[in-house]
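does this look right to u?? guanine version
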Amino acid sequence: MTQIIDGNEIGDRIKNELTESVAALSDSEVTPSLATVLMSDDDASETYVSMKQRACDAVGVNGIHIEIDADSSQEELFEHIDTLNSDPDVNGILVQMPVPDHVDKQAVLQRIDPMKDVDGFHPENVGRLVSGTPRFVPCTPHGVQKLLSAIDVDPEGKDVAIVGRSNIVGKPLANLLTQKGPGGNATVTVCHSRTSDLGEKTRDADIVVAATGVPNLIDGSMISEGTVVIDVGVNRVDAATEKGYELVGDVEFDSAKEKAGAITPVPGGVGPMTISMLLYNTVKATGLQEGIEVELPEPTL
Ligand code: GUN
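got this back:
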């Protein structure tokens, strides 16, 4: 029987624990706060940011939301970031990606105070992760790692095929899973659009993580019996629904489920974990900034 991994349930468990961490901070009269910045007209980005803000409310984190016209200048965005950087009542800052083409994405990531960089995308935090002293682990890869541990799948000694080499998911996840220590010790192959025989790589893996943004790229023929399949993709494809689209992953769920030992659905798999780990980083950031030791859901990275 294939296990369908319930990211909503696992993510809610983490959120419940974080609610307790937030309550403990209130004893010190501290309320964590997260600022989200949206500079985009993209519907999906708007949806993601509002989900992040709703999650803040649910655990008692103070959510601040800033919207900037997509055709505003990069300077205007930087002014907002600078204000948030210097505001002692703001603990975490997230600029929703993608930003418009006229904005230098790397410059945006570097503008955010690394102590408030709850995405973990600032080069200082990327360097810390790669060198084995993580501060803020990027939320989606961290969520994938927590999902695996929640279903008692230890990556140690396993062959993992990560499909996708993005800075947001593929690269940090490869670093996390190869790290020496709990939740790591895997042998990782990072596949991408130039990989010569993708199916060979995924069939050889004990764990397949798909993070490409290509709908239904991986089907059942590319999965071996018993493989753990984690689908990070969230793709809108045209469909005769009320909204005119439906969400599908990078994995063709029906055929992959026939082979997989465990598989995440889309939606309801990795997505909720990303949001829980964002709150986790926000609570962690608050503790670091305030010099308070906060209890975080285990295992703490
Ligand atoms: N866009 C898609 N995923 C993410 C994420 O994890 N963080 C930010 N800031 N933007 C994103």
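The radius of gyration is 19 Å. idk if thats expected tbh
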